[in-house]
Amino acid sequence: MKKKIALVTGGYTGESVISLKSAAVVEKTINRELYEVYKILIYPGDWHFLSVSGEKIPVDLNDFSIRIGDDKITFDGVFNILHGSPGEDGKLAGYFDMIGIPYTTCDQLTSAITMNKGYTKAVVDDIEELHIAKSIQLFDNSSLNQNRIQEELTLPLFIKPNNGGSSIGMSKVKTWDELGEALDKAFDEDSQVLVEEFVSGREFSIGVFKGKGQVTVLPATEIVSSKEFFDFEAKYVAGVTNEITPGRMNEEEISRVNRIAAKIYEKLNCKGSVRIDYFLQEGSGKFYFIEINTVPGQTETSLISQQVRAYGMEVRDFYTQLIEEMFS
Q1: Which long-range contacts (CB under 8 A, 24 or more apart) does 62-65 make?
Q2: Are 59 and 47 in contact (CB under 8 A)?
Q3: Residue 325 catalytic?
Q4: Any idea what the CATH number is for the domain that residue 7 is in?
Q5: Using CB atoms within 10 A of its CB, is residue 184 exposed (0-12), middle (13-18) or buried (19+)?
Q6: Which of 9, 90, 271, 322 would bridge 112 by S-S if both were Cys, CB 3.0 to 4.6 A apart?
Q7: Count of alpha carbons within 13 Å of 180, Cβ hemisphere only?
Q8: Catalytic residue status for 128
Q9: Rounded to 10 degrees, what is the CA torsion of 6, 208, 278, 260?
Q10: Backbone angles phi, psi at 24, to 5 degrees
Q11: pLDDT, tens digit, for every residue of 176-207?
Q12: Within this chain, do residues 179 and 276 fall inside the same structural domain, yes or no?
């Protein structure tokens, strides 16, 4: 008997467009000999399944079921590919926990913490060999906070929404004249903003996942962007960024990065597949943690897909491991 899997996508934020692209890839790649897949679209006040005929079938939120004709469809598990809220910030995880349906991503607490960049850095701060850029977490856009930034931090700075994704609302500030506009842009996206000093170095992103009971660190991707930083355009517009997988690291760096990445995964009690972004500082080679994504993109060209293939695994088998792990 095939397991019935709900593939959840959509979302409440600007990342929904990326979520739909990821879901399209998962939907066509997933092993249909093992699973019946139902794509569930989740929008504010509108959770539904779209039938083959184009009929919009609402989800019964009492038990996360749908009714097709006379048949009531309930799900054995959820493949979560919903970036941003509510799929990545713990809201969906808490809902599925309450109704007793397993899912492929991190639990409610880990999802909520890791969605907040400042809180995440506080948790991982004591991991050996891991470094964190000096930063300030802001809860309001005031002149007092602007003065505090200038007194405590050194240019250039990265200013980013604390709970956002896909680098939406993020800016690099090189002069103090740019500070106000950058803060306005970030606060337009979130009520919390993280301001951190720029670390000069090479940027990488590395996938980590748990499958067959084991944590696996994938080959890292080096990000070489023609942009100032790895922003929304650099992430999703072809030709803007050169992504090198496996990234250019020596044996010592590979060993150290893999060690740190596994510790981050374990310290945050992650589940499923995550992607950790980091710098190797120019000169020192120190590992500087940037952020973690607990629902990383799964498009054809996404970093995780590249890394899975570089590891020597078919993406279809990778998805199977993620699904089977949630039932273990």
Answers
A1: 62/99, 63/99, 64/6, 64/95, 64/96, 64/99, 64/101
A2: yes
A3: no
A4: 3.40.50.20
A5: middle
A6: 90
A7: 4
A8: no
A9: 140
A10: -60, -40
A11: 999 999 999 999 888 889 999 999 999 999 99
A12: no
Are 50 and 170 contained in the same domain?
A: no
Q: Is 291 annotated as a binding residue?
A: yes
Q: Which CATH number covers residue 157?
A: 3.30.1490.20
Please give the Cα distance from 131 to 114 (Å, whole number): 17
CATH code of the domain containing 276: 3.30.470.20
Residues 11 and 81 in one domain: yes
Which segment of 54-68, 161-175, 274-288 scores lowest on mean pLDDT?
161-175
Alpha-carbon gap, residue 18 to 28, rounded angstroms:
16
Annotated binding residue 242: no
Report the distance separating Cα 6 and Cα 83, nearest Å. Answer: 15
Please tell me whether residues 298 and 251 are part of one structural domain. Answer: yes
DSSP state of 103: B
Q: What pLDDT digit, counting tens, does each position of 296-305 carry? A: 999 888 999 9
pLDDT of residue 234: 46
Residue 230: its pLDDT value, please?
A: 47
Same domain membership, residue 125 and residue 81: no
Question: What secondary structure letter does DSSP report for 101?
Answer: -
3-state SS of 30-77?
Answer: CCCCCEEEEEEEEECCEEEEECCCCCEEECECCCCEEEECCEEECCCE
Active-site residue identified among 85, 166, 167, 273: 166
- Do the beta carbons of residue 88 and residue 274 sit within 8 Å? no
**Which one is catalytic: 22, 205, 273, 302?**
302
Same domain, 227 and 118: yes
Domain count, the chain: 3
User: What is the distance between the alpha carbons of residues 86 and 61, in angstroms, rounded to a whole number?
Assistant: 14
**146 and 89 in a common domain:** no
- CA gap 299, 318 in Å, rounded: 14
Domain around 68:
3-104
15 is catalytic: yes
Global pTM exceeds 0.85: yes
For 69: left if phi > 0, alpha if psi spans -120 to 50, otherwise beta; the answer is: left
